Amino acid sequence: MPPDQAPDSPTADPAIVVVAVPTPLRRCFDYLPGNEQPAGGWCCGVRVRVTLGRRQVVGIVVDFRAHSDVERHRLKPIEALLDQTPLPADWLWLCRFTARYYQHSLGDTLANAMPVLLRQGRPLEARTRTRWFATEQGLATTAEQLGRARRQAELLGVLSQHRHGLVASAITAQGFDQAQLRGLHDKGLIDSTREWLAAPERRSGPVLAEPSLTLNHEQSAALAAMHEGLDRFHPVLLHGVTGSGKTEVYLQLIEAVLDRGRQALILVPEIALTPQTLERFRRRFSVAVVALHSGLNDNERLDAWEAARAGRARIIIGTRSAIFTPLAAPGVIIIDEEHDSSFKQHEGLRYHARDLAVVRAQHHAIPIVMGSATPALETLRHAHQGVYRHLRLTQRAGHARPADMRLVDLRGRPLRGGLGPQAMKAIGEQLDAGRQVLIFINRRGFAPSLSCHECGWIGECRHCDARLTLHRQPHQLICHHCDTRLPVPDACPSCGSADLRPQGAGTERTEETLSEAFPDTPVLRVDRDTTRRRDALEQTLTRVRRGEPCLLVGTQMLAKGHHFPHVTLVVVVNADGGLYSADFRAMEHSAALLTQVAGRAGRASHPGQVLIQTHHPDDPGLRLLIEQGFDALAEQLLEERRMARLPPWRHMVLIRAEGQDASMLHSVLEEGGNALRVWLGEQGLAVDCLGPVPAPMERRQTRWHVQLMLSAERRSALHRATAWLDEWLAAHPGSRRLRYSVDVDPQEM
Ligand code: ADP
Ligand code: ZN
Ligand code: ZN
């Protein structure tokens, strides 16, 4: 267990310094203090360089002790002190909580939560520079008074002319040296400050750079409710249909927070995909806004982190990992599209940024707003229970009307590029009327598989339980799970027939079909393959926003937060993906995605239409979604989960194990599960342990994947059971031949 209540005030002369180092081991290590001592005294949060085994690693001081369980002569001293002042206390607190809650190594959590350069041991000062300026006394001093120190007099003259001083590099560029600087400094004629390189633009004047919109009745009521909770922990679900003006409510809430001199942290699913959102924040406010996204280099990342820590940045917008940004004066946290699965990290430290945000807001006693048109069932349940305040926006803002959704039966219909005759006809009509159409297809590439018409052979990945997707550009068979790439065979590898046929449709095939059917209309494709270049997506979107007739074909990249005011028809090529999945969340996610996609249509004055193609037009879930909307379906799913004793009614932990030897994996987990059940019985803990069962894709990248599932109504019991099993597994001799991980609140089964 990570040490919990460590002192935050300096400790004089500690006997033992406890350091969290980046290792998967769930323990910290004892060191002797060494010769150096931080300027402000020993504190938790100071980075140090230590020897671990034969490696030198960067760790963080997390505790002090009077005694160690290790014999003194075997303890190593700290090699080097990397910080004079500790990393921020609120940040350290959040990392400790995260490590404990997700049952992850504290050292690894800390390493995950800091910018790469700090993780590598770079001093914070590496990104600062020195600025020299003349003091009052210096300004009053004449060249004559400096006598024979001619160069010093010249330097003082130069500095006196620069009211804001000069940075050290500019001074040396003029031929002055350190000795002259030191000479003047010793006489008290000049002084220096350290400033951060590349600080965000500091703007002055009023907080608002452009006027806010006049809110409609529902928006005003929501904002008023949020204003009531500005100075305390106040969790809010802002549950508003797409286009209902949630972002405008965030903006006006942020305004109130900025007026109090505080900062706003905004988490979004994917910034690179939504530059307009960022642009909207920058346009509205005259304060410094920093964006943390995957396009930043290591220096820029550190600069942004430091600007937030020091309070120079007032608005911080970022994706999942931005939850670990330290804040000088936290005022509000906003999670946009809170249901989005990208907030959960699916490997290593498997945290959920939304859940951590709630805990963090509570710690700071500040409001948190979770916004969505399709809230996660977890969030909805909290709202129903009154744990979160439930605010609704039921109308689209401005003049847009809700789109009309319809199921289209595909059974027995001829398909071209995945599209049936009804969709083709509707597309043609919209194009004739000079409008735009969006075609949503959940599969990139040309076709989901390639098969032999003679013998039924299907191209499969050698390393995974998965079919190979046929791509046109490049012409290859590609595994979407391990990225294995193979040339497309000319003849069937099994029977030699040349009659190989692509099965089903991906974005490339739909694009091809549409180009053939509508040769006069540009077809724009948006998927991971067409948007590898950073600005490619933005260029496409700009074209769409200009409003000329076009066909937009894309994957879920298009479903998130974009406004397409000229799109009047949305076609969903296949809605069946979520209907018969092994994952109990599949229907929830599928319904959210359909609703989000549908929300792209008809934002401006033209009403929108949504055609949803399916082979299961009678599926009760789909029908409920179409006829009564996401909220009605969500209520039903919640009820089903309750009956089935699934989250959010119960809590879950998944132990995932992988290795080369499937039977060994099964037997270790079998043994572990049995031992755990015995222990649970002895302890009288109500925790269910299911498995071991094969993971949904049992073989991935040549390794086998097996899992154990723990669930309980009470988190504390589940937590204890997980910790016990984790220790058991770590101690098991077989554990060296397998890798396992603990996933608390798993989002994927
Ligand atoms: P959401 O975030 O709920 O999808 P947005 O905040 O992006 O919705 O608003 C959708 C559109 O409606 C935007 O173009 C926005 O400028 C406009 N809008 C929002 N609120 C208002 C309002 N009160 N009056 C007029 N237009 C508004
Ligand atoms: Zn064949
Ligand atoms: Zn593969």
UniProtKB/TrEMBL annotation:
Coiled coil: none annotated. Keywords: ATP-binding, DNA replication, DNA-binding, Helicase, Hydrolase, Isomerase, Metal-binding, Nucleotide-binding, Primosome, Zinc. Residues 473-644 form the Helicase C-terminal domain. PROSITE patterns: HELICASE_ATP_BIND_1, HELICASE_CTER. One of its GO terms (cellular component) is primosome complex. Binds 2 zinc ions per subunit. Its EC number is 5.6.2.4. One of its GO terms (molecular function) is ATP hydrolysis activity. The keyword Lipoprotein does not apply. Gene3D superfamilies: P-loop containing nucleotide triphosphate hydrolases, PriA, 3(prime) DNA-binding domain. Component of the replication restart primosome. This is Replication restart protein PriA. The gene is priA.
